[in-house]
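Much of what follows relies on a compact textual record of a protein's fold. Here is one such record, which you should read through line by line:
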Amino acid sequence: MKELIPTINEIVKYGLQPKLTVTDKEKLLERHLVKIYDLYFDIEYKYDETDFPDFDKSQLPDIRQNVSSNFKDFGFYKTILDINDIGNLKDNTINDAIDDLSDIISDLLEIKWRIENNSLADGLWFFKLIFYSHTQQHILNLLNFMKQEATDKILTKNRKSSK
């Protein structure tokens, strides 16, 4: 788990600092999201029954605003409500890539805080809990959005160059 905190740091910086100048930030973000996803499968901990203090999200900066300043192309996208309902082509929902990354960052900040302020076991327990119940879906949605955005950019560029 030596890679966990450095990987978290690489993702959360986009919610903690506005207008970062990072080359290939979408590619780097994608790489680190996949790395967090992979680290989830290696979590091993012994439950710590200590009564620890709770994480105070009110002390965080405006993560959503910072994410928005760092990823100008992030926005709304459409998803299917029930992927297994093949015949239903009407039930869609609108999601938000900025919200996805903001939620991922908030979850990762709490994991990091718990590791650094409570215990490694508490942080890993929370990682296991929050990832499966919340973070995982945001990562999958965001990666799918980013893939579609990259594909759209390539197609648009190819159309312009073929004219």
Summary: DSSP finds five helices and two strands in the chain. The radius of gyration is 18 Å.
